[in-house]
């Protein structure tokens, strides 16, 4: 499969599109979902170009899950959530809408979240939540 260098996450990684960053290092970026399914909805992506987890190198996959765990703990604490929902979709047929591997971190249960967010989050509010999560990292 050929990686689409013009997908929105690739553009975010190249700083062509702004985002509310939660965490960044040499291999990973975590940021607020612009169409949150719940307050605190955070995305964690590797910087390695791969559409699905099946195309991600084993080293990048291992690193990514470590970062997902770290960000999920920060989201849980910052949002005072009793639990965390993690999900990751592979391919359009599975519901993946951006062709770059990413994990969703949702405070609480997906059962209480909007399954298809239809509204853009308020950038100022997203940044406030991002700051709360960053403070827990």
Key structural traits:
30% helix; 137 residues; 3 helices; alpha+beta; HIT family, subunit A; globular; 5-stranded antiparallel sheet
Provide the CATH top-level class. Alpha Beta
Spatial strand arrangement across the major sheet: 1-2-3-5-4
Q: Which regions have little confidence, pLDDT < 50, spanning 5+ residues?
A: none
Look up the CATH topology: HIT family, subunit A
Structural class: alpha+beta
Our count of domains comes out at: 1
Mean pLDDT: 94
The H/E string reads HEEEHEEH
> What Rg do the Cα atoms give?
14 Å
Instruction: Report the major sheet.
Output: 5 strands, antiparallel
Using DSSP, what is the number of strands? 5
CATH architecture: 2-Layer Sandwich
Number of helices: 3
**Termini, distance in Å?**
35 Å
Give the overall form.
globular
Give structural notes:
By secondary structure, the chain is an alpha+beta fold. It is about 30% helix and about 15% strand. It has one domain: HIT family, subunit A (2-Layer Sandwich), CATH 3.30.428.10. A five-stranded antiparallel sheet has the order 1-2-3-5-4. β1 and β2 form a beta hairpin. The relative contact order is 0.23. The model has no long low-confidence stretch (mean pLDDT about 95).
């Amino acid at each position: 499969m050929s990686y689409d260098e013009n997908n929105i996450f690739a553009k975010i990684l190249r700083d062509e599109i702004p985002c509310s960053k939660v965490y960044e290092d040499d291999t990973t970026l975590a940021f607020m979902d612009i169409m949150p399914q719940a307050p605190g909805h955070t995305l964690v992506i590797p910087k390695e170009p791969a559409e699905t987890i099946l195309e991600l190198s084993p080293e990048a996959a291992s690193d990514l899950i470590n970062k997902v765990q770290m960000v999920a703990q920060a989201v849980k604490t910052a949002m005072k959530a009793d639990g965390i929902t993690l999900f990751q979709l592979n391919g359009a047929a599975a519901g993946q809408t951006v062709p770059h591997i990413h994990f969703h971190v949702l405070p609480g249960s997906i059962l209480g979240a909007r399954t298809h967010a239809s509204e853009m989050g308020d950038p100022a509010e997203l940044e406030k939540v991002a700051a709360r999560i960053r403070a827990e990292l």
